[in-house]
Amino acid sequence: MDASTDDAWGRSFPFDDIATAVLDERGTVLRWSRAASDLLEFTAEEACGSPVWRFLADPSAGRCRENPRASGIPPAGRAVLRRPSGDRVEVAFRVVRLEGSAQSLVLALPAQNLDMWNQSAALARALFAQDRIEIGILGPDLDTVRTNAAPSETSGGSPAFVGGILGKALSPGEAEEVEAGLRRVLETGVPLIGGEPGSPRVSGRQWSLSAFRLEDARGRPTGVATLLMPAADQPRDLHHLDLLHEVSERMGTSLNLLLTSQDLAEALVLAFADLAWVDLAEAVLQGDEPPKLVGAGLWHLRRAVMVSATGSVPGDLLQPGRTIPPLPDPPVLRKLRCGETVLASAQEVSEQLGPELAPLFVPERGQSVLYAPLFARGLLLGALVVWRTDRPDPFVEEDRRVLAEIASRAALSVDNARRYTREHRASVALQRRLLPRTTSDIPAVEAAGSYVPAGGGADIRGDWFDVIPLPSFRVALVVGDVVGHGLHATATMGRLRTAVQTLADLELDPGELLTHVDDLVQQLAEEAGPAQPSVVGATCLYALYDPISRQCAVASAGHPPPVLLGPDGTARLVEITPGPPLGVGGMPFEVTNLPLEPGSILALYTDGLVTLDGQDIEDGMAQVVERLAALCDGDGAAPLDGVGRSLLSRATEAPPRDDVALLLARTRALPDDSTTAWEFPADPAVVAEAREAATGQLAAWGLDHLAFTTELIVSELVTNAIRYAGGPIVLRLIRGNVLICEVSDPSNTQPRLCRARWTDEGGRGLYLVAQLTTRWGSRYGRRGKTIWSEQPLAPAMEQQA
Model's pTM, two decimal places? Predict the structure, then answer.
């Protein structure tokens, strides 16, 4: 048996359903009721004389059977009994000691019936405890049997049914109408629902009456239960609830300030007003916090949107995009500034604004208006204004309360959009500042780059492209994609782009450069820790093009291969062996050398371009190849920026799910006669020969005005190579938009610029070279190094002119 107590026995159980039995002091059944036979299917002859434990599903639960008090039978509880068929039934029981006797009376009934009666009793207690809903139980003659209305309430005219058939508070007409409705409920059993068509209203239509017929266990009517509650204007209330629901659904669907304002105005015009507009602070439209408004004058507001039920905006009103002019300080605006939703008539607004301003703010045929401030987090972001012009009913106080609720919700959505605008503007500005110029025109290539952020600008990520001019007219073409999105990805992209530019200036091999960048990404991952794993990782493609040799060295770190369009119009994917993405570590990056004819177009892109429609990346790459060939068909001089826009047209039509970066580069080559080279042994006597060769070539190019400085540069560089590196030594001159002088030697020693003291015999060579040139540097190859210098072709005075 379950020893848990159950004190929920009520006072209204049907006794016919309660099974009873009388036990002696030893727990033997002495008496057995008909209800007990119906419950357990044992007859009285079968049950009497048997111990009570016989009927338990678990007989071992009755211990110490010789003494009922020690047998474990509690005064009340629950037990599981069995029937002859083996079925089990859970009952709630109570044991009552018969006074003056050792016998006990056991009362039991199915536990589920008790649970149901307990719930019914709890519901009845809750209803009768209500103070806003008056409950009445009426008998068959509609006399009041029970009510939760206090007697003092009825004396003041309350419609509660106390002290008579329907209460003395009802007027004769109301009493007859209500009595007729209640008698129909009693006779037919059809409930009366307050607010439905044909239902009676009580006391000047201020109360709503509902009634239900009460029946006994056999279904015979015993009376009527009535519920009386304040009767609201239900159609209007339902309309307002629908409006609140509609606005709540529309609000927050967009983080664009104008779209959010447009959704709000359209929702109100559809079901609430004839004309609506939203004015926002100019600072809010930029994502900043609005200034505080003090007194009359300039409100710093701008009309964001205006929506009319007719579809056309009245021309006399202030149009969207216009700034709100200086205003006086009438009561309407003063209350609005203090955070109060204001209800006013068109005449009141016109009188307070004056004849000059009224036409800008009061529409023709305007009847009544509601002004609601858009307050959020202590900031007055703007104002919501709704007008009724053609609807017959003006706004009422309930409309004012509803619009105040709508404005409070809308203000949060507007403020969320404002904050997003601020963050997005910062992200976009950072992204744009970190990207290079979209077009480049240098001796090696003509290039055009494009970038389309994800979500049409709603999501900033880490794609980038770069065109890095290098010494000796070479150029590095870069495109990369940082994993993740947001400011973290943008910041990581900026660091990687800076690293690539720095390493490119060292003129490293593409594979070696990516190895260094891979080390940097691993370092960034260690600094970020596990909290930001999604922004540490990237793919990158690095191409190094030499317009003299017309060779392009390409290396990839997990990036899609470039597309090559030849001068003959044929396009193909460049076959490369990609390495792992940056940040993986431990794997080399293979370099692919690619000969490029002048006029070839090399297309570098991120994976966002080839996965625009969710298609497979290989199908996307094949489509890019086809489109590039079609866009440049027969036109080797097609503007690259136009070709890029056409390739990205699908990304601009629908906001892409991923960033897209595209870099198109048309290769150029220096003429063969623009380069000449000589090889000399490591002999001090060849310094004079090198000078003579250089001056002779300058004369042939018509650059005699550079002969003196070039002689000094060649003399110093060749002398240093002979002294510190050995031979053979290669001198090369390159003429382009500048004059390049290169001296190569087999040594890997690092040349250092130093300031020689006046007593030193040497150490002034590189310092002199630095003073005579615009820039100089060195790069390393597989064997040895090359020191280079640049000079402008025009004389200094001509450049200044």
Answer: 0.58
